[in-house]
């Protein structure tokens, strides 16, 4: 695709200011937290971990999370990243509604002492950030996704002993408000990235342009792995578990390589990325 075509394609989102989601990088880098699933997947439980500096972060849920769930997750963070959109809610907050939203996060252990953030939004606003129309089917899908995300239990413990958990919370909480509004509680771990802690920037303009589930997942992982202005190298095969959560062999691996190459073509159509492959090794540049 020519440069002027790329620019024209991206310019449709220029009217949305600061169109980035500020997200805790562990939630982007963890293999299997979000993954491309079939449209009618079997209901299998979610149980994934991410180890960092001797600490284990673990996510548990009654079902796995797909790329629609990832898009809703990012849309919430984009809205929460906007100045003045979230309210800090601690144990002493005066509003019974806000305290109920906080309580629904099921904060335990060290998390029980922390404040959370609460975002007031609507299903329509979330759909707009995702690039979806406000059809009844889409809004229903987003609502179901919010329910799934609000059921995810997030734990932190040292080493590999879950009985030593010292931080426990749900990913989100959700409470219906008046006039179609919903209150979304954001747990303290995610809230740190939104209030000045370490975070990665994920372009929602780019996410809206991308069509494939595999490309959306790859884009999220790369956006956390690379900062703007970075140039890095990685083998194509090493991207496989970051998209699908596991490595593959023979025919399945060949199929996944083919799908990854199609996704790379889609990413290369964006202004912000330049990716070249040489004998299975990728050179990636994230353009400022």
TrEMBL record:
Pfam families: RepC. This is Replication protein C, IncQ-type. It comes from Azonexus hydrophilus. The gene is repC.
């Amino acid at each position: 695709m020519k440069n002027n075509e790329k620019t024209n394609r991206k310019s449709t989102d220029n009217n949305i200011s600061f169109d980035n989601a500020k997200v805790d990088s562990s939630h982007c880098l963890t293999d299997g937290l979000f993954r491309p699933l079939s449209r009618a997947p079997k209901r299998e439980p979610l149980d994934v971990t991410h180890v960092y500096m001797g600490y284990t972060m673990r996510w548990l849920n009654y079902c796995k999370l797909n790329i629609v769930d990832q898009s809703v997750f990012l849309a919430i963070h984009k809205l929460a990243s906007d100045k003045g959109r979230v309210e800090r809610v601690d144990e002493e907050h005066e509003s019974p509604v806000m305290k109920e939203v906080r309580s629904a996060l099921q904060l335990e252990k060290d998390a029980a002492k922390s404040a959370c953030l609460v975002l007031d939004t609507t299903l329509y606003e979330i759909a707009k950030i995702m690039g979806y129309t406000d059809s009844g089917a889409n809004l229903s899908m987003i609502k179901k996704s919010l329910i799934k995300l609000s059921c995810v239990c997030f734990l932190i413990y040292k080493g590999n002993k879950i009985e030593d958990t010292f931080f426990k919370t749900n990913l989100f909480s959700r409470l219906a408000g008046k006039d179609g509004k919903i209150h979304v509680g954001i747990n303290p771990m995610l809230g740190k990235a939104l209030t000045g802690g370490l975070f990665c920037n994920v372009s929602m303009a780019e996410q809206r342009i991308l069509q494939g589930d595999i490309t959306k997942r790859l884009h999220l992982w790369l956006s956390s792995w690379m900062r703007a202005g970075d140039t890095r190298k990685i083998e194509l095969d090493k991207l496989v578990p970051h998209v699908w959560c596991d490595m593959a062999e023979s025919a399945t691996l060949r199929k996944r390589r083919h799908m990854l190459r199609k996704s790379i073509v889609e990413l290369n159509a964006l202004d912000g990325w330049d990716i070249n492959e040489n004998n299975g090794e990728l050179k990636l540049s994230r353009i400022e």
